[in-house]
Write a structure and sequence with these properties.
The protein is α+β, with helices and mostly antiparallel strands. The chain has helices at 22-38, 66-81, 135-153, and strands at residues 5-7, 16-18, 44-49, 54-59, 115-120, 123-131. A hairpin with a 4-residue loop joins strand 3 (44-49) and strand 4.
Length: 154
């Protein structure tokens, strides 16, 4: 299973935007769920495309309802800013260069760990967001998904 590219515009020379197929998203989610099960923490796992739009989302039994939106917004943030969400924690503190970022984009920006871009050939083609545990647990589970994505696309 490989991530697919979809044409952005018609024509032979049109640029393409890489994306994450549903099959790849489901495989990434399965890997993340295995890690969440191993650490005994129910999670919500979301995979988004390069624009931050939902490709797939999975809520494990007993995962918090609030984690549905949080995981989706973590994936959105990682895709929108091309960076892991934990890297936003320090610059968004009072006095930081990005202070207030979490209040922008209709409140969708998440500035704590658990969201990672999915990168293929140096291009962000999607993102994963995980919520349901402590931040370090969310990051751990998301990293399992990123590792699986890298295995599938390398």
């Amino acid at each position: 299973m490989e991530a697919k590219s979809q044409p952005q515009a018609s024509g032979a020379d049109a640029p393409t935007i890489g994306t994450v197929s549903l099959d790849v998203a489901k495989d990434v989610i399965e890997a993340a769920e295995r890690r969440a099960t191993a650490i005994d923490t129910p999670m919500v796992i979301t995979v988004a495309n390069s624009e931050g739009n939902l490709v797939a989302q999975h809520r494990m039994d007993d995962a918090w309802l609030a984690s549905v939106d949080i995981s989706r917004n973590k994936a959105y943030t990682a895709a929108a800013l091309d960076m892991p969400t934990h890297e936003l924690a320090d610059p968004t503190q009072p006095g930081g260069s990005l202070y207030g970022l979490q209040n922008t984009d209709q409140g969708r920006m998440v500035v704590f760990g658990g969201g990672y871009p999915l990168i293929r050939d140096g291009e962000v083609v999607g993102a994963i967001g995980v919520s349901g545990g402590a931040v370090d647990q969310d990051m751990d589970v998301a990293e399992a998904g990123v590792s699986r994505f890298n295995e599938l696309t390398s």
